[in-house]
Design goal:
The chain has helices spanning 3-16, 49-55, 117-126, 156-169, 179-198, and strands at residues 20-21, 28-29, 34-38, 43-47, 65-67, 73-74, 89-94, 100-106, 109-115, 138-143, 150-155. By secondary structure, the chain is α+β, with helices and mostly antiparallel strands. It folds into 2 domains: 3-67, no CATH class; 73-198, no CATH class. The chain has a 6-stranded antiparallel sheet. Strands 4-3-5 form a 3-stranded antiparallel sheet. It has a two-stranded antiparallel ribbon with strand order 1-2. Strand 7 (89-94) and strand 8 (100-106) form a beta hairpin. Helix 4 runs antiparallel to helix 5 (179-198). It starts with a helix and ends with a helix. The relative contact order is 0.14. It holds the Pfam family DUF5947. InterPro entries: DUF5947 (IPR045991).
């Protein structure tokens, strides 16, 4: 993920308290609102209700904008070993052209690794839910670091938030004393958000 995308996310959080316009049309945006992904810049944009409805139709955003879904689905464990994933904290997205990319949150942003599409298809064959992921705007999020077993389909905005958490909390060579508790809180909040939606 580009550092500009993270900076924009931080600016949006600050501006929310003041009230901000829709990043697409300029109309007022309520505290609870949807996001669209600018595919060209890989940046999230706040959207008013009208723009959310507009971009909820598949063709409305064309090749430029895509509405970010709100689904947070916990999965049974997904074996990522065959994907060549060398770390325990990763999210995987499928691009519009079918390219599969693994992203590793790090203190400098997200490092990317292209996944063999044939291997990805084998994983999807074993875990059918992955075949329902919306391209560009949903991700397989995996945390097997430090004995964790977290496997989710999440909106891409959650992945952006996780990268921001890692960048903010990381210190030294190994991450320091605050980054892993912060990551654990992130996943606890993810589970809580899902329970709230289910309720």
């Amino acid at each position: 993920m580009r550092s500009a995308a993270l900076e924009r996310l931080v600016r949006q959080a600050r501006r929310r308290a003041e009230g901000q316009p829709c990043d697409v049309c300029g109309a007022p945006v309520p505290d609870e609102h949807r996001h669209v992904l600018d595919l060209g810049r890989a940046e999230l944009m706040c959207a008013c209700r009208a723009c959310s409805v507009l971009f909820d139709r598949d063709a409305a955003g064309g090749d430029h904008f895509r509405l970010v879904p709100q689904r947070r689905q916990r999965l049974d464990p997904v074996s990522t070993g065959s994907l060549g994933v060398p770390v325990g904290l990763v999210f995987v997205t499928v691009k519009s052209d079918g390219t599969v990319v693994a992203h590793y949150p790090s203190p400098v942003g997200a490092t990317e690794w292209e996944v063999d599409p044939c291997v990805w298809e084998e994983v999807v064959d074993r875990h059918a839910q992955l075949g329902t992921m919306a391209r560009e705007v949903e991700a397989l999020l995996v945390n097997t670091a430090r004995g964790q077993r977290e496997h989710w389909i999440v909106p891409i905005e959650d992945c952006f938030r996780l990268v921001a958490v890692v960048r903010q909390e990381w210190s030294g060579l190994s991450g320091g004393s605050t980054v892993w508790p912060a990551i654990e809180r992130f996943f606890a909040e993810l589970a809580e958000d899902r329970r709230s939606c289910d309720g």
